[in-house]
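Q: Hi! First time doing this. I have a protein sequence and I read that you can turn it into a structure. Is that right? Here it is:
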Amino acid sequence: MKQIIKKVRRRHVREVFIYGMVGGVAWITQTITYLILIRLLHIFPSVAMICGTLAGLIISYYGHTQFTFRKHRFSHTEFVKFMVTSMLGLCINIGGVRLITKVLLLSPEFAIIPTIFTPFITFLISKFWAFK
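A: Yes, that's right. Below is the predicted 3D structure, encoded as structure tokens:
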């Protein structure tokens, strides 16, 4: 029984670590895209967040299917679930952008803050629903 618990724990620790690494690369891509669009191209922050999230989403899907959850064949069902999960994350991020820029009247650069917390929510949904 102890060996089984040890294997389960090790597998979950590995998944969380890899999820964090893939998510980190996706977040960096999202953030760079967002900042380039708002600073250099003067795109509306919510639109820039959508574009940044889509860029990060491509990296996330590939990374999570190949490395985190080790799904080496494409599944339409998992892809749809991943998209639903990602859209929830996008809604959280856009809500954060709107709150920070329209309600709190802060600089759009501060809108990156909610994107740090979104992955915790999307990991749980991905783990227990999307890639189950």
